[in-house]
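Usage example:
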Amino acid sequence: MYRNRPNLWGFLFISPQLIGLLIFSLVPLIYAFTLSFTSWNGFGASEFVGLTNYVSQFQNPDFWKAMLNTIYYMFLVVPIGIFISLLLSIGLNKIRGKEIYRVFFFMPVVTSSVSVGIIFMWILNGDFGILNQLLSYIGIDGPMWLTDTKWVIPSIALLSIWWGLGYNMVIFLAGLQGISQSYYEAASIDGATSFQKFRHITLPLLTPTTFFVTIMTIISSFQVFDQAFVMTQGGPAKASYTIVFHIYEQAFVDFTMGQSSSAAIILFVIILIFTLIQFKLQDRWVFYEK
Amino acid sequence: MKNNIDFQSATVLDQAHTKNNKNLSKILLHILLIAGSFIMVFPFIWTILSSLKNMAQIFVIPPQWIPDPVMWSNYIDSLLAMPFGLAYFNSFYITVVIVLSTLITASMAAYAFAKINFKGANVLFILFLATMMIPKQVTMIPLYLVMDQLGWLDTHLSLVVPGALFNAFAVFLLRQFVMGIPRELEEAAIMDGAGYVRIYWNIILPLIRPALAAIAIFTFLQSWNNFLDPLIYLNTPEKFTVPILLNSFKGLYTANWPLMMAGTVISVIPVLIVYIFSQKQIIEGVAITGIKG
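Running the assembly step on the lines above writes:
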């Protein structure tokens, strides 16, 4: 009968996902914490070393290099990416043919990091890439995008902005759809100009969406790895060496698992902080809107 | 009175004027959007064009836009150069197994969390929510060690089993949908003597079909495009999935751009086909859920 033994049936129904959660998420997370306090190097005995891994991480120039590269990348992708996608979604919001434009702008989102990485390696090729050839038509001598230490992070940022633009656009469009038409009608009656409507209705009411997109982009920026791995292997001269690259390299190239885990935990804490900010602000907005 | 008429005609004129202005700015906007769309799609077009050139054509300055002669043989060459067929097969069956099992396991958990009043349900659900915050890069080392312990390294189990059994986001999203199903439907079934399994299978599953479709598409994209996991777990080229194979292809054929572009086109085609046929669902799915493919 239906109401019989809800505890047993409840557990039966969640058990496949619960087992998955324990083995593939919760246990590994605890394991990562534990490893970060040991000197384990992939084989042999592991010793408890306290905070040594964290201390040496903070003294490791590679760690700081990776951190700075990642933050630099984030400061390019977050403002530029969000600004372009915001403008784009406002332009698309009420225009005929929106659905068709959306298809084109969203297309890169579904393709894999490796394929977009290879495509951009060719486009950004310093000698024969199409970008520099097009630039030369307007008299600009383009840089060696991926092999110049100054340009490699902006190049990866360019790829990421192109890659993620459609995603942000869709989120912004959903946010714009959520703004009630009555505000605009009321403003029209009061004789507001389009710009005033944008400034005093659209922008403020879109704030929750903008924050959501910003936090999500910050979080994904801290996780940047695939693009750098495919296009530059972290080079030239570690100029595109990111924090996840550092974790990967310490774990699977140097086999200093303990060291690597401490970097992973630092990344976890950074991302956790941004996630919690997101949760907190979300609560506030829900409250304000009511 | 005269003043009034003047005022009216002035407004009419003004309206006509703003209407013209509006049309003009609409046209301008369309031009900008068409240009933008072109920039977005251009990398793909350029990839296809490059994939059909030979080595002489590809290194020409200024660039040759249309390949002549058209080198279809690049596709045959890149298919022969690496076991693309095998990678396709691997990616395909891994993805199908993951998608189907996710639909079942996640909807089961969603049903239990939404409709069965069992002990610890709330705490466990919060646990599911909390794990959504853990980035996969943080658990990649321990997961590698877990796979090692299980003896799953360099096997497809390392990809299939976690994919099939753990998708907190799918559980969360499906639970929202199951919660929206009115109690009366279940109660009618209970009156007919239906148990949990029959209610789940005959009532819940058919009613959440749209949500299941969205989860299926996203899981497909995630699994097909997954790079980090197979990169860490797989060593044998015969076991590679498409992204990993493409990456090693890149390593082997550096500077042979036509071949690399052909390989890239081959690897992108399945997702683009899925995208073209389900773009509406994908885009609307992102809008509702805010998840990335």
